């Protein structure tokens, strides 16, 4: 519970302050203090829903900061209690009305993978989230089911989820908060393949090092793979680098971080990066080999294979719009050389 609460605090602060670091917390110390005061009571979690907290504590903006300087009042606390205090569910306000009722479900996944220097897939798993954006009149009661829920491990639920229907039939039954929220998270382990391959070849002799890196599609997911990047840190013993690519742009920063931006793989040729590294005087061979960090993005597919079955509403209002989307991006995706 403690770890879950800390994760929720981090999510709320990031949502309020549009980022989370030491400087942001210092600049918005009063709001951070007010949020923590509402989120925890006598050592126990109390209110952790962003939509309820926004009714009690206004997010910071330029106008509120100017008023606090002029008036000397730095508090953003509301004078009225949020509507959820009179609701049967503490994460949803009462008397919500919409002209158009909408609910959208997104599967957002991150793939973590480790490929060793022999090209063998050592680890491959997916961390995913089911995100729901709900704008429905009244107090809706939703059920969401999957075609293959057995592949999910380490599931974590939003407090709105009733646990018994999931435990008995693997069905998510819930009364959603208003707006966007994370319904559940999960992990799918021991996947057997990755969508793209990265093959680095590094040879060194007589104070120089030859680098060749090839990138291509290993298993076509059926959707466009874009935003492909390959990033690696040059060893400290490298004095200079001359790297070029037949597709995309290569950038070497002052901290010796090399970034190869490929975006999309063309159909007529496989992207390749090649070049020479000059080593320090007296050093004939490279002793420390870089690790390649790979990034990519795929719209419209969940690489874990998880599929949504159906979304039902117990009391269906007029003009209900439902939508499903899937999105996969790279997480910690390493190729060792």
What descriptive keywords fit this protein?
Immunoglobulin-like; 3 domains; 4-stranded antiparallel beta sheet; 17% helix; alpha+beta; 6 helices; 337 residues
Describe this structure in words.
The protein is α+β, with helices and mostly antiparallel strands. The chain has three domains: 1-86, no CATH class; 102-191 and 303-336, Immunoglobulin-like, CATH 2.60.40; 196-298, Mu homology domain, subdomain B (Immunoglobulin-like, Sandwich), CATH 2.60.40. The protein contains six helices and 19 strands. The chain has helices at 2-17, 22-27, 29-39, 50-56, 62-71, 163-169; strands at 40-41, 44-45, 101-115, 121-135, 142-146, 153-157, 161-162, 171-174, 179-188, 196-205, 208-217, 225-233, 238-245, 249-252, 257-263, 272-279, 291-299, 308-313, 320-336. It has a nine-stranded mixed sheet with strand order 6-9-4-3-19-17-12-15-14, with no helix packed on it. Strands 7-8-5-18 form a four-stranded antiparallel sheet. A four-stranded antiparallel sheet has the order 10-11-16-13, with no helix packed on it. Strand 3 (101-115) and strand 4 (121-135) form a beta hairpin. The longest helix has 16 residues, at 2-17. It is globular. It starts with a helix and ends with a strand. 24% of the residues are buried.
């Amino acid at each position: 519970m403690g770890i879950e609460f800390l994760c929720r605090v981090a999510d709320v602060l990031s949502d309020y302050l549009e980022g989370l670091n030491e400087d942001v917390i210092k600049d918005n110390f009063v709001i951070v203090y007010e949020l923590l005061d509402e989120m925890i009571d006598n050592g126990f979690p109390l209110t952790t829903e962003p939509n309820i907290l926004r009714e009690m504590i206004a997010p910071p903006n330029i106008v509120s900061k100017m008023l606090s300087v002029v008036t000397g009042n730095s508090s953003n606390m509301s004078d009225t209690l949020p509507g959820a205090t009179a609701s049967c569910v503490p994460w949803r306000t009462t008397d919500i009305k919409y002209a158009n009722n909408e609910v959208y479900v997104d599967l957002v996944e991150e793939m973590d993978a480790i490929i060793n220097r022999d090209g063998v897939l050592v680890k491959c798993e997916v961390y995913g989230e089911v995100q729901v954006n709900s704008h429905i009149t009244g107090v809706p009661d939703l059920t969401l089911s999957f075609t293959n829920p057995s592949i999910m491990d380490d599931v974590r639920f939003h407090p709105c989820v009733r646990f018994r229907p999931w435990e008995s039939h693997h069905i998510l039954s819930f009364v959603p908060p208003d707006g966007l929220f994370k319904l559940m998270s999960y992990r799918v382990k021991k996947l057997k393949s990755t969508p793209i391959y990265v093959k680095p070849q590094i040879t060194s002799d007589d104070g120089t090092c030859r680098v060749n890196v090839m990138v291509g599609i290993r298993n076509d997911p059926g959707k466009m793979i874009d935003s492909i990047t390959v990033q690696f840190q040059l060893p400290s013993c490298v004095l200079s680098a001359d790297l070029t690519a037949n597709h995309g742009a290569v950038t070497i920063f002052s901290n010796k971080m090399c970034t190869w931006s490929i975006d999309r793989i063309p159909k007529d040729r496989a992207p390749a990066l090649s070049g020479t590294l000059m080593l320090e005087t007296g050093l004939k061979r490279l002793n420390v080999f870089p690790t390649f960090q790979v990034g990519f993005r795929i719209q419209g597919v969940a690489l874990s294979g998880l599929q949504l079955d159906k979304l039902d509403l117990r009391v269906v209002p007029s003009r209900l719009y439902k939508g499903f989307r899937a999105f996969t991006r790279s997480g910690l995706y390493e190729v060792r050389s």
